[in-house]
Amino acid sequence: MTLILDYDAGNLGSVKRACSEVGLNAEFSAHPDAIIQAERIIFPGVGAAGSAMRSLRERGLDTALKTAIASGTPVLGICLGMQVSLDYSEENDTQTLGLIGGRVQRFKLNRPELKIPHMGWNEVRVKQAHPVLAGIEPGDEFYFVHGYYPSTAAPEHALAVTDYEDDFTCALGKDNYVGTQFHPEKSGRVGLRLFENFARWDGVWRPDRSSAGSGGGKNAQ
Amino acid sequence: MLSKRVVACLDVRDGHLAKSVKFVNTQNIGDPVEKAREYYLDGLDELVFYDITASSDKRNIMLDVVESVASQVFIPLSVGGGIRSVADATDLRLAGAEKINVNSAAVARPDLINECSEAVGDQNIVLSMDVRRVEVSSEQPSGFEIVINGGRTPTGRDALQWALEGEKRGAGELVVNSIDADGTRDGYDIPLTAAIAEAVRIPVIASGGAGLPEHLHEVLTDGKADAALVASMVHYGDYRVSGLKQYLHEQGLKIRMSW
């Protein structure tokens, strides 16, 4: 069974509807035991880092998630669910889960016509092949809504980038964990494909040593 | 770089798709769920549903429409019409609406914007404003006035001031609908759209008057809009969403071309 982590972090119905559309049977839960036993976990979230972390800790979900990840359960983090997987978020000055090294920062943009939040469709450029990102072609766009972005400490964790004044990491991965800044549940066919990929993923992934470190070059296309 | 969005607006009355000309004489033109699915498969970037149901006892029909669309259409879904409270907004969010549009009720009680924005997140609150051209006066220095109740009632509020107030109160996006242009298919009100888009830091969706692909191009460039809303030009089959996007792409705009 696929578990959608339900921790009062916004409207999660759209994630469940996208799962149903690709035949992935997913249920909401906020029980630590269910998380540890789940076959795979989707960790969504809309809202602010501070209240999300409080909500996770109060329910004992932070420890349960770490246990599940250590045992190899495939986990997909989306938007805020991805952001709190890093060490720290500037949003509400929050210590986050530390599943992946790095920080979440507020956009600081120079061009006045660029708005915050970064909201709308933007291109996702895959830098390292990953089973969950399979099938994303150059030019494919996903739907984004966010004012903060992840900055991973180790380039081998950066899977894909998006340009908003500069390139930022929009998908990251480590072992059996993968996270996206964009919303695959609102991204049409390419987004649904990502859920299909996740439904089939066994949780095994190794960084591509040759491409890691090149992450985010503007001339990559 | 973000793509410019093509947004389709479906006016829904008692669960049926309706289209009005200058906000009067609505006629039934089909099933909103079918239309939504058709546009989604044809590359639409975002959907707006506007509930123009007159009687409040039929309001729940809209929740069913939203739920049905949300389970078949996987792009952002925005819903407006008759939202008066946080409870209205929350019900629609649970039914599957991504964004909530507030309009007349926010003019009557501006705190509604703050309350909804706190309850469901500012990026999900859209301030939708119906605007008409008026003589420049001390009350309406921009020459644009907010009207409510589907364009029938003038409010005396200056549209530019209202846009800025809405942004300050926590709206994450604006829909700027020209009542003068609505339903005419003569093009968007470019000066109105540009004046508001240049004054605020949140995205602006231009609405009212789209009849030709050139109108979309004009409002996304000269009008400084982030998104162009279309209705009758696609509802009656004169243009397809994919055709409009292809045209805008060929004109050099950044448009999502793969779906």
Q: What general outline of chain A do the C-alpha atoms trace?
A: globular
Query: How many helices of chain A?
Result: 6
Unreliable runs of chain A: 212-221
Portion in strands of chain A: 25-35%
The largest sheet of chain A, given as strand count, sense and whether it forms a barrel, is: 8 strands, mixed
Q: What would the CATH topology of chain B be?
A: TIM Barrel
Give helix and strand order of chain B, one letter per element, not per position.
EEEHEHEHEHHEEEHEHEHEHH
Q: What is the number of helices of chain B?
A: 10
Per CATH, the class of chain A reads Alpha Beta
Radius of gyration of chain A: 16 Å
CATH architectural group of chain A? 3-Layer(aba) Sandwich
Q: CATH H level of chain B: which superfamily?
A: Aldolase class I
What is the makeup of the main sheet of chain B?
8 strands, parallel, barrel
The end-to-end span of chain A amounts to: 38 Å
Helix content of chain A: 10-25%
Counting DSSP E segments of at least 2 residues, the number of strands of chain A comes to: 14
